[in-house]
Amino acid sequence: MSKIIFGIDVGGTTCKCGTFSKEGELLRKEEIPTRKDEGGSLILPDISEYIKGVLADMNMTTEDVAGIGMGLPGACLEDGTVNKCINLGWGVFNAANALSELTGIPVKIGNDANMAALGEFWVGGGSEYNSMVMVTIGTGVGGGVIIDGKPLYGFNGAAGEIGHLPLVEGETESCNCGKKGCLEQVASATGIVRTANRMLAESDMPSSLRSVPYISAKVIFDEAKGGDALAIQVTEYVCRYLGKGLACAAGMVDPEVFVIGGGVSAAGEYFINLIDKYYKECVFHASRQTKIVKAALGNDAGMYGAAKLILGN
Amino acid sequence: MSKIIFGIDVGGTTCKCGTFSKEGELLRKEEIPTRKDEGGSLILPDISEYIKGVLADMNMTTEDVAGIGMGLPGACLEDGTVNKCINLGWGVFNAANALSELTGIPVKIGNDANMAALGEFWVGGGSEYNSMVMVTIGTGVGGGVIIDGKPLYGFNGAAGEIGHLPLVEGETESCNCGKKGCLEQVASATGIVRTANRMLAESDMPSSLRSVPYISAKVIFDEAKGGDALAIQVTEYVCRYLGKGLACAAGMVDPEVFVIGGGVSAAGEYFINLIDKYYKECVFHASRQTKIVKAALGNDAGMYGAAKLILGN
Q1: Which GO terms describe its cellular component (chains A, B) (predicted)?
Q2: CB pair distance less than 8 Å for A154 and B253
């Protein structure tokens, strides 16, 4: 009978690898580098080697493994097909089958943001609820939708792509995705800095941001909390669009809770409260009381979610 | 053994009542008036009387009925609770239990737009697909989300409220829902007329719309098809926002197909193609090829969907 599960979160720099008991306990955790050379063709063999090493180390065989869950930075279908992971150099192929052939272990895959959502739903900020939308605000803005305990994949593997909702009217610059006016362009860590630089250039308002050596999202939130008028203007602008994004998510799936994660969420209650203010202003009245909470698992969320994919509901 | 199913679509003026075989065949169809006097307290007793009449007429008893599905113009929860139907004068109560007590037959309820979506999914425009988002463009803009053959209710019964996505920046007037900037304010039949009247007032552009005795959404689309520049400007503006709304829906649930229904959808291919043009412009690339099709069941969709709620997957 199988005893363990692997939860692997494949990122652009490292793969976070968790070994879990079938009861869901994290037994060990390591990171291996994501080797993107040769069109990303080394990544799955590296993961396979890692898993074989862990099994040897634990005196186990593939028979002891219930499955491998894997989160990937791209659109994933429920059948295991990945629809391009640009960051990894991958095209379209069945990544679940490929890793399964290398390891002899059943594999399921999901989009990394969906896996983070599933992890938070399982043991993190969403664990007391039945449905949730997670928004991960870091370098980009990712999202994941959980309904009745299951991640929503979407027909093209693109459900929960909240960062690319077309919310910003009149945007002239292009998003990484090629469109103009995506939420991510103002609300990601880089988007927040871009917004601040724009506002600094457009006004003569005195601001502590003018004298800091390096403007980051963290600095902007710190200065806003400290009362700097221009930094406050930036955070209000950013959170107004995030509130709109959450209102759109509520209008479509009406979850029980929103969970906010990613590096920018370290800005804490000030950030959450500001999003909530604008959310309440523009959401449909029936969803007005929906809670917005902070994520709890940090960078481990995706690894937990990938394992949960194997554990099932 | 039960032989028939009732599908009732409760509207503000009439209730459309369908009697279906367990195989899903529509056996008979009638409308009864929706009596809104006395706080809407006559509506369920009227439906109960109607059902008893049909059973007597068909020489059947309640034993012959598998269930009653009922679509209602308000937020509905899966447990049968209706969270206000302002049009009917209803507050918060379990409408499914109430009708079940009156009839002695099991009852399930759903929001009318969700039921229309389920009907179209079952035997209409969405019948070849596994997931869909329906948008009903009439007096208002309603929506319904179907995932894996099931309507998505949402925690507050508000999933699929696409008409109240906050998409229109800088809107100064209020929507019926109390907010400002809802998609419905520009894209419902009344919103389209309002948009035309604004554009007529703001410019001196000659337009056939200036001389028609009565401007309706139909007239505007007819004139646009005929080449009137201002009417074209109105339809482009309206469809740009509808395209954005669909792009937001795709970003959250990524359905296999969009089905467009309601009175305004009579504008046909011109309308669908224009929505599609703007959809493609602002949707996340993975969902770019998602089909947009016209609804097929007209005003019967809600009745079919209500019956399907009883038939199950």
Answers
A1: cytoplasm
A2: yes
